[in-house]
Amino acid sequence: MSVYERLEALNIALPKLTPPVAAFVPFLRSGNLIFLAGHIAKLDGQPWVGQLGANLTTEQGKNAARAVAIDLMGTLHAAVGDLNQIKRILKLMVLVNSTPAYTEQHLVANGASEFFAEIFGEIGMHVRCAFGVAQIPFGACVEIDLIAEVDDK
Amino acid sequence: MSVYERLEALNIALPKLTPPVAAFVPFLRSGNLIFLAGHIAKLDGQPWVGQLGANLTTEQGKNAARAVAIDLMGTLHAAVGDLNQIKRILKLMVLVNSTPAYTEQHLVANGASEFFAEIFGEIGMHVRCAFGVAQIPFGACVEIDLIAEVDDK
Amino acid sequence: MSVYERLEALNIALPKLTPPVAAFVPFLRSGNLIFLAGHIAKLDGQPWVGQLGANLTTEQGKNAARAVAIDLMGTLHAAVGDLNQIKRILKLMVLVNSTPAYTEQHLVANGASEFFAEIFGEIGMHVRCAFGVAQIPFGACVEIDLIAEVDDK
Fold first, then answer.
1. CATH hierarchy code of domain B3-16+28-150
2. Cβ B24–C149 below 8 Å, yes or no?
3. What superfamily does domain C29-150 belong to in CATH?
């Protein structure tokens, strides 16, 4: 199965690229590396507002992280044109909007990590850094940035 | 106009490189990538102390982010010798010292992003990750690190 | 002295690679870059729990950062097979579990930075970004991720 067939089997439609709301770009390529801007969690097209430890459960946070991963996949598709050219999802940085007492950022981050592994298989297995931040733009509950590697051409 | 002419037109003097106060270096090159250490905001040569949501406005935070961008530009100049050799500002990570209720980190970060776009044009347009942190060394209000790409030689 | 002789002179045994507790991998290579996942501080094999500014001193935080650096070195060894092939420790991102009032993240981070300089000399001198985060998985006091460069082959 190709990446697109797996997405379709899961009934996932990749979102269209939305222009950043500020003075930056959604992706850039340098050599074989693709850098994606930080993507915040969205629900029905609006920032997915909330804080883990306050008003969101770990399960909700995990779903939010998965939603971000789907948006990142949409941006990756826009960046490379064909997701089958991705050689490796290299690195995720997963920021979890957290109270000072919430310590399950790794479980929240799994919502994104497991999605990439599910869609890409071995190629989707990445290194990761997940931690709790004081806040995220627009009050979103999760923000993720990503580095991927593409094949030489 | 060259990068230096634009800086002069804005009456901006690049700071001299200041040695890190700890056991690390201000920049490193690997292949075509230049990695800059995290730079904290300074005011009159001292840490620009404050927290967004507590004792600094978004406009003040944006000015602080612009000040960091000028310092980063000074370090980039020291790293490459000639800023016109910069091929692309690739990525900023913008850390905003934030209370748990402050959610305008993206507006603060624009102070840096808009500066790079202003000086470098298209080459200055980067991917970005901005978020709120619990604290920053010396109590500074903003910290930014940067990755740039230089031309092959 | 080789890297391994310096480690032995300091009576440091590199830990065996421990598999991540979540859906990611501990290291990946892309071109000449090695990306390491975020490593949390451990004490006697368990998460080194605590928060700077609350229940840990700067000196304790610095020791925790040094412990993370030793674990990162173990992972680097697993990644490259021979630490003498490391061309440069490029970058550390040092996350310090901090109260909103704690501002000595740079001193905590020195525990890791000084270790890499001690073991690798000039090659161990890196760029660094250190800051205070709201929380870290499992309540750990410090988390660090790392990018290193290896020689062409």
1. 3.30.1330.40
2. no
3. RutC-like (3.30.1330.40)
Number of other CB atoms surrounding residue C42 within 10 Å: 20
Q: What is the mean pLDDT of residues C126-137?
A: 98
* Burial class (CB within 10 angstroms; exposed 0-12, middle 13-18, buried 19+) of C149: buried
Which pLDDT value is given to residue A115? Answer: 96
Choices 3.30.420.10, 3.30.2270.10, 3.30.1330.40, 3.30.200.20: CATH for A3-150: 3.30.1330.40
Give contacts of C107 with chain B, Cβ < 8 Å: 22
Say if strands B27-30 and A142-150 run parallel, antiparallel, or are unpaired: unpaired
Chain C positions touching A110 (Cβ under 8 A) are: 22-23
The ipTM estimated for the assembled molecules is: 0.95
What pTM was computed for the model? 0.96
Name the pLDDT band for A24 (thresholds 50, 70, 90): very high
Across the interface, which of B27, B95, B135 has its CB nearest the CB of C127?
Answer: B27
CA distance A46 to chain B (A): 14
Question: Alpha-carbon distance C147 to A23, whole Å?
Answer: 27
